[in-house]
Amino acid sequence: xxxxxxxxxxxxxxxxxxFKYLTFRTxxxxxxxxxxxxxxxxxxxxxxxxxxxxxxxxxxDGPESHLLTKKGTxxxxxxxxxxxxxxxxxxxxxxxxxFVWAVLLVTIGYGMIGxxxxxxxxxKRNSKGLPGKLKMACQIVxxxxxxxxxxxxxxxxxxxxxxxxxxxxxxxxxGWLYLPFAVFVIVGASNAVNLxxxxxxxxxxxxxxxxxxxxxxxxxxxxAVFANYLQIHNIPGSGELAVFCGxxxxxxxxxxWFNAPPAMVFMGDTGSLAMGGALGAVGVxxxxxIVLAIVGGLFVLETVSVIVQVTSYKLxxxxxxxxxxxxxxxxxxxxxxxxxxxxxxxxxxxLALLGLSTLKLR
Length: 362
Prior knowledge:
Mean pLDDT: 91
Shape: globular
Largest sheet: 2 strands, antiparallel
Structural class: mainly alpha
Distance between the termini: 37 Å
Radius of gyration: 20 Å
Helix content: 55-70%
């Protein structure tokens, strides 16, 4: 909004030329997201605690320690992230950019799905929430609309192309198959972050790391000169998503202030579904879906652990892990929660560096 209102006046007021630069507006989005979260966080947590009374329902089949350490902690803290993220994006991004609105559609839409899920959990005092099939159907519908929109905004020949990292100018034209593939990326990323969100601070820091990486990727992909230098594809307009990712970084850092162990609030599905969907959508816009799987490898690992556990139990009656997702396996082995969280953060940081290396190793 500031870009649309103030940059046209830069001819009369020279300092307003700053709003032309994505780096300046991305920095502004980071700071705005952080400040909004820190300002509204305490009052929102008090309101959530007042409304929820007993806090988020704790799984009875989960780690025994959670019944003692997590009980009474309010959920739906993702509302705070969505508030800060949306306000920051609307304030600093170019609102004429269709990619921004497509990604916001996924983020807010998935946030609403997560809100309904959390609401049912809290009001019904049941850890299951929305029926799984209904939740998945809603996610798919939103993703289909968003991907169709993104494809319409993307210039040929990248409209339906899958870019392969580590190789120069290698792309696979998927044709109509790109739509279901991209939907899978968005829905998969959303649920992967959701599965990872099980310990204090475990999901939010990897999201911050992945968002930082994709802020840089969006900037490079949207800049014709830098894209040509790195021999990667250029998607005009995608650079504006650097502002969105910056807003997510700021909101995430602010939320971590309240979510750091011992957590004052949980993000719930409201936050995890929204942030995962947001990362998936940015990956689709920038055509870095495979790189997203590398940068978000921790989320992939957590998801695979659940798939392996369920498949093994159904086929053999035996469990591979003591409990899934993977972080609960280590809890069952006796690892301290802080040890698991910090080690998973380290893994996420290493994977982010590996993902960034794909921009140059071609």
